[in-house]
Design a protein that fits this description.
3 domains; Immunoglobulin-like; single chain; 505 residues; 26% strand; alpha+beta
Amino acid sequence: MNQSVHIFRKDARHLWPEILVSLALLGALLWVTPHNHGTPDPDVPWLYPLLGGFLKFLIPVTWLVLISRLVHDEPLVGDRQYWITRPYTWYGLLGAKLLFLVAFVYLPLFLVQAILLHHAGLHPLLAGGPFLKNFGYLTAIFILPMLALAAVTSTFIRFALSVLAAIVYLIAAITVAAFVAPSKLAVPYMGYVEGTLLVAVPLAALLLQYAYRRTALARALLIATPAVAFLLILATPAATLIGHEYATALPLHGTFDPNPGYQVTEPGEPAIARGKVLLQLPVVIGGLPMRSALQSQHVIVTLDGVAGAAGPAVHYNSGWSETVSSLNPGPRPSRLLLTLPADVYNRVKDTPVTLHVTLGVEQLEAGTPYTITATAAPFPIPASGACRVDAETGSLDCAFPFSNSKPIGITGAAVTGTCSNPSPSTPASSGLAASIPTPEFDPVSSQQARFGVLTDGSANLCPGAKLDFAVARTTAKGSVTIDIPAITLSSYAMRITAPPRPQVQ
């Protein structure tokens, strides 16, 4: 321990210019970021958002230089370094480098983010889990790979070139994987396996280099990691894993709503993305309790039809593929989003076909509601968030530490007039969607909830309104089937310029 402290003090003396620049940039982030939270303020100079984005780029670059200089102060490549003649232990040396990162990277970032959360009306002490998750992402995606690359290079120039090569290598591997096996990129369970691989291998290379200085082997491990991850994606039995995830048939039934009002009858070219046509089908989910919803995540589409008036039979099976739709209880239909290859769609678009749809879904149910009085000042809500009423826009501006982990339903009373000239209050609803956590320097995740009257139309929220917040929880995962006979696909293909049509949930 004494050895680690002595090396730490030496590094702090040697690297004080880099430390000072890093701390100054974090201070600038603390000064700029609060101006970018919530609803854009016309009185805030346009420079603040631009400067905030620039700082989020500069801080990682500064850390990259700092990590390189830190590791290269006792370079591990070669056998003629002065420090190897000293009584250094590898774990004492590595411990000193980690202590340096804690003192001058993690701790300053933690303090800046805690102050930003407090300024946004959030309680930093309630964000322990999000803090750990964010630091885990930063470590796995940035700091650990940079430490490993610095450990297998001897100079900053070689380190910088290695970083550029690694970025190009990763982009190429991800791009090829997205084109070769797009259906396998969101397979259940595989994210944990690939994440473990991408953390374990750089960590192993770092430990191997510090303990034994086996540079060639450590470099080979780092070079092989993306290739192994790519091969792992190709070898993944996607259909088996997805089928296992949704093996249970839920006691629900889906029906297609043939109401012509939901069809697209105006002419226009269908929207095509990556060679696929997007369909929007109105469906009603029977048996789904009120205050519940289905989130579709994967789907199998089976199509049977005839090409043209008397052409050959067409059969298409998509296999498990991704889809994102939110399906609510009836009686009004919800939008089910499906995709079909453009060549299949063009062959049968104007003739009736039969669709058999198997949805892999997650059933969400609203938990116990919490009644809270909305105010213009930030007030706490479930999921460690905080909201405030913007009386000018009639919306609810909410903030969460780093990300909102669960969907939240909101119901209450709103007005169809303005807060200065309100009409009688009427029941209204809105919601806050869950967001995917990503490594962030700005710890405040902002969301805006606009309210709609339960019958139809929009409404404004005013200070003093009573709101019920209900956090959704997952109650089941499984499959739901929908049979759609005699549907004409061209009537439901989304257009490049979508014509007006009746609103569905």
